[in-house]
Amino acid sequence: MADKRAFQSPEFGAINLGQRKTRPMFADEHWQSQPWYEAPREDPAIPEVYTYTGGISFDPGDEVVFHSTSTAKSWQLQIYRDGHEPEMLHEAEIDGVFAPTPKDAYRNGCKWPVSHRFTLPADLRSGFYRVVSSCERPNGTRFVQHHFFVVRPTKKTRRAKILMILPTGTWTAYNDFGGCNHYFGVEGEDGCQPSGVLSLERPWTRGIVWLPAGAPRICADPGPEMGDAPRYPMKEWAFANGFGQYYAAAGWAQFDRHFVVWAEKEGYELDIITQTDLHCRPELIDAYPCLTIIGHDEYWTWEMRQAIERYIEKGGRLARFGANFLWQIRLEDDGKRQVCHKFKAIHKDPVAGTDKAHLLTTAWEDRNVRWPGASTVGVNGAHGMYASWGGFAPNGQKGFTVYRPTHWAFEGTGLHYADIFGDKQRIFAYEVDGLDYTFRHGLPYPVDVEGQPESIEILAMAPAVLAEDEPEGDGFRYYVRGSDHEGLVQCVEGEVTPEGLAKYRYGSGMMVHMTRGKGEVITAATCEWVMGLKRGDPFTQRITRNVLDRFTAG
C-alpha cells in the first residue's frame, strides 16, 4: 500500500541551481537562434543524477527496473502517486554510479546500468507515479530530476468508470533529452535537424513531468497592445530557467495533471493508462463506459485509432477535452521506439510506396493516408491549429461561442446562443481542432468530407489560424511563421500552391458531439480546456460534469 504519512513535496525549495558563470552574449543571440536540449553535464565535480525506467507503464505486482547515471556519491529515489492528494509510495538511498550517455541516446536509448529494482504492491491503485531522483551538492543546494511510470488497472484493482488515456505519443514527440525530438535536434548535415525516430528508454526533458506553479502557458496573456512586438513568454521563461524549450507544448505537468487534480477533488474516480497501453493492450478499454483524453494528443498510431473506433461502435463513450489530432506515428520494439517523419515522411519513411503506405508517419489528411481525425474524434487537426498566441490571433477571443445552447452538454449552464464561455479563463488557446464548415440560418454545419461521420453536430466554436500574421514593426521577430502551413499543404495537396495555402490558412476550434454505432463522442477541441477547470470557470466545469456524468451513467 502507498505510504499515508503527511506528504512533503520532494521539489520543495530552490533546486537545480548551477554555478554562476559570466559569458559573452552576442547581439544576434536569442532563444530561437540557439535551440537547446537537455543532457547530463557528466562533470565529476558537479553532482547530478538522471533516471529512467524500463517501461512507462506496469501492472500491480510488476517489478520496476530503474536505470541511472550519477556523478554523486549517493542519491535519493522517491516515488509518489501524483494527484489531488499525493501519496508517497517508495523511498531509497542509492549509491551513485556514473555511465556515459551515448551520442544517439535520443534514438537508441541511454543504455545506463540498473540502479534499483522495486516490486509494486499487488493491490496498488492505478495512477500516475512521479519518480524523483535527487542529490545534494557541496553548495547546499539539490539537483532534482523527474521521471514517471503509470500503474495500469487490472480486474482486481479497477475502481473507476472513467479510464483516462495519457497522450504519451505527444509527450515523446516533444521530449528532447539527449539531442533530438520530432521538431529539432542534432541530426542532419548541419547538426540542427529533428529525428524521425525516438527512443523511450531515456529520461524526460525538464518540464514534461513537473513544473513549478506559474510557468507560462502558450497563450497571449494579456494580449499585445497596438504596436507591441510579438512575444513568446513560454520560450523566454524556459530559456531563463533551464527548462525544456517545449515544456509548455506537452506533458503531464502542463495539461493532464490539472484535470486529474480537478476530477479527484470533484469526486470522480480515474483509472489511467498510456497510449502505448492502448496500442499494445486495447482490451483494457473495454471494461469502461467512458474514456477521456486531455490536453494535447497530437500523435496517434493506426492501431490506437482502430481500438477507439471499435470501442465507440460497440457502445463506448469518449470524452475528449483536448486538441491537435494531426500525426500518425508507429511504435516499434514493443513500444520502446516511436517513429514519425512528419513533413519528410514521403522521402524518409521506409513504408512510403509499399503496401504499408497507409502507415506513413505523416498527417492523417495526407493524400497517402486519407483517414481524417473526424472519423475518430469528430474534428481534424488540419482544419484547426493555432489561436491566441504569438502572431496567431493574439487578441482573438479566448473562449468558445455557443451555437446550440439546447444541447444536453450545456444543461444547467444558462448559456444562450452567441454567448462566449471560458474567455476570462483563456480556455481557447494554443492548438485547436475544427472542421470545414458552412452557415445556414445562423448555425454552423460541417461540410461533407469523405470519411467524416454525418452525425457530427457543432455545438460551439471560435476562429483559428495556421500561419502567423506578420505585421512589421520595430524589432519584430516571429517564431513559427508559415512553416507548418506550407508543410501541411504539401502533405495534403502534394504541392504548395496559392490555392492550397488559401484553403488551409484559416480554421476553427470546435466543441462537437458525434454518434458512431452504439456509442458517442464529445470533443472540446482546445488544448487549454483544463484551464477552465483549474481557474474555476463555472461554465467549463458544468459542461465537463455533464459529459462525465452522462457518459458514466447506468
TrEMBL record:
Residues 78-534 form the N,N-dimethylformamidase beta subunit-like C-terminal domain. It comes from the Bacteria. This is N,N-dimethylformamidase beta subunit-like C-terminal domain-containing protein.
